[in-house]
Design a protein that fits this description.
Layout (H helix, E strand, L loop, with lengths): L4 H13 L7 E6 L3 E7 L5 H5 L4 H14 L5 E7 L1
Parallel strand pairs: 2-3
Antiparallel strand pairs: 1-2
Helix pairs in contact: 1-3
Length: 81
């Protein structure tokens, strides 16, 4: 299944933030009104994606919500080890 623009955005940003970019995976779960994007990274890179006090994760979610506004669809980012 092809990734949506939002999934591709999270994939590119996720790869840029980690030390092991080949282990970044993005899965999308499409609901009626919600799109769940699961960002899976290596265990060693989990801290880089979450950031200090969750700041990086919050920034990723903010970017995702801003980008999804034009699609008029609610998006949720789940970070998975």
């Amino acid at each position: 299944m092809a990734r949506s623009e939002l999934g591709e955005l999270m994939y590119v940003i996720g790869k840029a933030l980690v030390d092991l970019p080949d282990q970044v995976e993005v899965t999308e779960i499409v609901g009626e009104q919600t799109l769940v994007i699961e960002l899976k990274v290596a265990k060693e890179d989990l801290g880089k994606i979450i950031g200090k006090q969750g700041r990086t994760a919050r920034a990723l979610r903010t970017i995702l919500n801003g980008a999804s506004t034009k699609l008029r669809r609610r998006t949720v980012l789940e970070i998975i080890e």
